[in-house]
Amino acid sequence: MATSSDIRKGLCIHYNNDIYKIIEFLHVKPGKGPAFVRTKLKSVTNGKVVDNTFSAGHKIDEVRVETKRFQYLYKDGSMYHFMNVDDYNQITVDSNLLDSSQFLKEGEIVTVLTNTEDGTSLSVEMPQSVTLEVQATEPGLKGNTATNATKPAKLETGASINVPLFINEGDLIKIDPEKGSYLERVKNL
Fold it and tell me: What is the mean pLDDT of the chain?
């Protein structure tokens, strides 16, 4: 049994007869009154996000999880198919367990959190950054590197993000999948 001081991003807990994953938290120590933890929780069964505040010292029921590395194979309707990189077993995961599925390309290595009690998949975590090719965007102009102006670009996975003006079709770019934002242009791999 953990307490509110053990709350961290990615922690899975039992809450309201469901399993929730903590996606955001903030420890607050006001000048007057007791400390508390403001959290944003995401249900692993239906994807619903709720806000909750835990008082200092509040007992929380932590779910024991195991992390394994999986390779993304393909999508079939709303189901995503992954292969364990260690033992080559395949699993199928529902789309509501993926946060940034629009940036997932075949062959990408992800981390899958699994409930150790019953073996069910709780969530799929994308890597810190992914490298994707720009499929369509307006032509870039030399010298447009000094401003923060952006333009829309369509990526190889079908996702659309805003990129700097100097990015051209065919360029490889690094993206932060959690925020869905451009990080940098990648030179040839």
Answer: 86
**Lookup: tokens for 151:** 């333009």
Rounded to whole angstroms, what are the CA distances from 115 to 4, 10, 52, 129?
21, 13, 23, 25
Portions of the chain given CATH number 2.30.30.30:
2-62
Number of other CB atoms surrounding residue 188 within 10 Å: 4
Residue 114 β-bridge partners: 66, 121
Q: What is the pLDDT of residues 82-98, one digit of tens each?
A: 999 999 889 998 887 78
Q: Write the burial class of residue 169 (CB in 10 Å: 0-12 exposed, 13-18 middle, 19+ buried).
A: middle
Examine the pLDDT at 103 and tell me if it is beyond 70: yes
CATH topology of domain 2-62: SH3 type barrels. (2.30.30)
Position 26 pLDDT exceeds 70: yes
